[in-house]
Protein 1
Amino acid sequence: SSTSTSTRPKVVITRNLGPETMPLLLNRDDIDVVLWPEDSYCDRKWLLENIRGAAGLLVMLSDRVDTELLDAAGPSLKVLSTMSVGYEHVPLPELVKRNVRLGYTPDVLTDAVADIAIMLALMASRNAEEVTQLVRKGEWYKQPWSPFLFCGPQLSASTIHPERTAGFIGFGRIAQATLRRLVPFGINTCLYSGNPSTPADPAADAALAAQLGVRTLRRVPLAELAAQSDVVFVLAPGGPATQHIVDAPFLRAMKPTAVLVNAARGTLVDTDALVTALRENWIWGAGLDVLEGEPVIHADHPLVKEPRCTVLPHIGSASIETRQAMAKMAAENLLGGVLDQAMSAEVVG
Ligand code: DGY
């Protein structure tokens, strides 16, 4: 608990991290823990009041970290720890300027997010949204089994389509874990678009292809990726550099039987363009774990209403095992920063 006379460094935590992790923080006598007491989104006013003089702050990706909050913390702040791998919600240059270290949670969520990416690809191609709605409404009897009813393109290779190509916007840990899962589906070609500031390296691509078990792995321009892929996975970081990287020209270039999966950040996909692409059958379907403007997404959102679009409420990392690992890592990063020690994972700005 916090006392105004304590000289121990104060850490503020915007959500309860669960019974496995909280003792790691609460059972120490070298820090003062101030915890948002509700099981709900942390109140901004409470945060601005409590952050004063803190040495560490642990946030969720739903918390807004900005100069107002950093100013309220003041010069005592040494570390920001986010319980996420993405840090689009964090002004990194401001942290660098203020010498505040940033901890995040890579690796531990890679498999959980790759699992969801595969699920979304299957749901989008096999019309899961439309057909589960039908059953929920009790209308299965109206559309009994018939030869070509509810058919969608097959994600895995078939005699008709022995060659399958997956495209990845962003080709980091999660994309590669997703590709590993696609190899047993018979997907043998992988195209990706990487960070434009790093040069293409065909030799490294060939080595990685051998390691991942695909025949072809190539870095290509976005237009080629769009045109060649049977499924496109958006798995790059958010932020200004990738804003609307999937736009109308990209979607128009995709195959009409291809599906788009976004398990990264909503900002990478131009919502209006995707609505048009689905309505006008430029593409087959979409599977989205993230949306621009989330979490304020109403039932009449055009993508929520689109029968060929599955929208999940940002649950990519939401397996019990992964969230526990993320919470623990975020707590360790917080401690590392406050106690001037190494962190499990630190963003170098
Ligand atoms: C992240 O960690 O950035 C994911 O979006 C949620 O776990």
Protein 2
Amino acid sequence: NSRRSPDADTTVLAVANQKGGVAKTTSVASVGAALAEQGQKVLLVDLDPQACLTFSLGIDPEDLELSVHHVLTKGTEAGEVILETDDGVDLMPATIELARAEADLLTRTGREQVLRAVVDDMAAKGLRYDWILLDCPPSLGVLTVAALTAAEGVLIPLQCETLSHRGVGQLLDTVHDVRRFTNRDLEVWGVLPTLYDGRTNHARTVLETISETYDLDVIEPPIPKTIKFAEAPAAGRSILATSRSSKGAQAYREVAGNLLARSGR
Ligand code: ADP
Ligand code: MG
């Protein structure tokens, strides 16, 4: 795969869906922690100005002098911004300043490439990860397009409800544009069913309809809806640490195992 030469050892995945509340951030934190448990070196990148990922890993954005915004718009080196977390993953944190980065980038040439350039630069400087997971904001704006441009694959967390349909086509249109213009090799790794209520047939039917309509793989297993997830962010740790053996934690471990198998790592 010729384009990826500097970082061929790294699997970069964007976790994207322009709908909020579908468990993008929860999935990034949990899959990241699960991959780290399995001995992988993992970097999570918070690309949402709301900084929920940063918060949920126990870091208060207000305490930060440097964040992803500086890396994307001020030329600050990634290594100066990346933090270690208690979950065994590294984090490139966000603050509300990232909202401004989005506006700043709009007038910049090459804005779609800005994150890819950061990833390539990290590799060139020997800052190496097995996985880089990109937590996208709930929009299809500059930051999401930059994430899709830097990524090898995209995961689409999806809450299996009747109307969850509607955004998927739009997201896939964006993926097609990215493939055409900025990242020919981008692959959709699949939809990740989240907030899944296995007691109803409804969820299963919606999932099947979506995967057939859009010809998308489903990343198994579905992540069950459980109250444990609401508790984890306040503890500043992912559910893998706060409820080690819960069904949700186990499901994310299995998902991570399937992603590992797919990456061939
Ligand atoms: P997004 O990043 O897509 O906006 P979040 O990961 O922030 O979504 O999740 C939205 C809310 O849903 C959060 O309050 C989170 O704690 C909760 N949540 C995520 N996954 C689950 C789950 N499997 N069961 C119950 N609540 C969940
Ligand atoms: Mg989020």
